[in-house]
From TrEMBL:
Function: Catalyzes two sequential steps in the biosynthesis of coenzyme A. In the first step cysteine is conjugated to 4'-phosphopantothenate to form 4-phosphopantothenoylcysteine. In the second step the latter compound is decarboxylated to form 4'-phosphopantotheine.
Region span, Phosphopantothenate--cysteine ligase: 15-227
Name of the featured protein: Coenzyme A biosynthesis bifunctional protein CoaBC
E.C. number(s) listed in UniProt: 4.1.1.36, 6.3.2.5
UniProt keyword annotations, A-Z: Decarboxylase, Flavoprotein, FMN, Ligase, Lyase, Magnesium, Metal-binding, Multifunctional enzyme
Organism phylogeny: Bacteria, Bacillati, Actinomycetota, Actinomycetes, Streptosporangiales
Keyword Transmembrane helix: no
All residue ranges annotated as the DNA/pantothenate metabolism flavoprotein C-terminal domain in the record: 10-223
Signal peptide location: none
Length: 227
């Protein structure tokens, strides 16, 4: 255990974490993607395992080694990730959506590689992906389960106001809001955030290693778990 050892306060709990960034196929060789490295999600998986949880990590296109003792379910697209999360959430005590899910995908993926033919390129028509996080909250509410659902958000401008509005829209129990821009968050080793809850909770987590942020998130989740 790190830092002198933590009590295994998540022993007997099952947690499901999504990490990385989805890829939305344009053709067999091209995709629309994003810069998410998966580091924050992997830190959440490592710290939960260190605190005794049984951990499933749904990993979208992450180039990191599998954390020891964690079950990794690889996915590619937002639709894959939605299916995997809906399957894995069953019976879980906590579900954390740290993956960067593409908001849009190409309406159709070409079966063959798209070739140049000297004329203007065809536009790529996009359609909206399902909101996985909102779907997980809806599934939880439908079943009336005591399952803690956590979202992440990267915001610019009025970070707190945007975060509060997003928390209300998604209906999750905690929203971890990162401020982005100026080299923060994507691919970096450090992270800083404010964690919002519907009861008005706003916990500031100072800039530090992604493991520290992960441990603070698990502290807040652990407080909300039923005995
Ligand atoms: N998310 C999701 N499914 C989507 C988009 C986002 O589950 N189709 C999740 C992310 O994993 C994250 C949270 O929702 O936990 C917030 O993502 P974000 O992109 O900030 O929210 P959006 O609702 O997509 O809003 P925006 O227009 O600001 O991108
Ligand atoms: Ca989005």
């Amino acid at each position: 255990l790190r830092r002198g050892g933590r009590a295994p306060d998540l022993a007997g709990r099952r947690v499901v974490i999504s990490a990385g960034g989805t890829r939305e196929a344009i053709d067999p060789v091209r995709f629309i993607g994003n810069h998410s490295s998966g580091k924050q999600g992997y830190a959440l998986a490592r710290t939960a395992a260190a605190r005794g949880a049984e951990v499933t990590l749904v990993a979208a296109n992450v180039a990191l080694p599998d954390p020891a003792g964690v079950r990794v379910v690889p996915v590619e697209s937002a639709l894959d990730l939605a299916d995997a999360m809906e399957a894995e959430r069953r019976g879980a005590d906590a579900v954390v959506m740290s993956a960067a899910v593409a908001d849009f995908r190409p309406a159709a993926s070409a079966a063959s590689k798209i070739k140049k033919d000297g004329s203007a390129p065809a536009p790529v028509e996009l359609v909206e992906n399902p909101d996985v996080l909102a779907g997980l909250v809806a599934s939880r509410d439908r079943e009336g389960l005591a399952q803690t659902v956590v979202g992440f958000a990267a915001e610019t401008d009025d970070v707190l106001a945007n975060g509060r509005a997003k928390l209300a829209r998604k209906g999750c129990d905690l929203l971890v809001v990162n401020q982005v821009g100026g080299g923060r968050a994507f691919g970096t080793e450090d992270n800083q955030a404010v964690v919002l809850g519907p009861d008005g909770t706003a916990v500031e987590i100072p800039r530090g290693p992604k493991e520290d942020l992960a441990d603070r998130v698990w502290d807040l989740v652990a407080e909300r778990l039923p005995d």
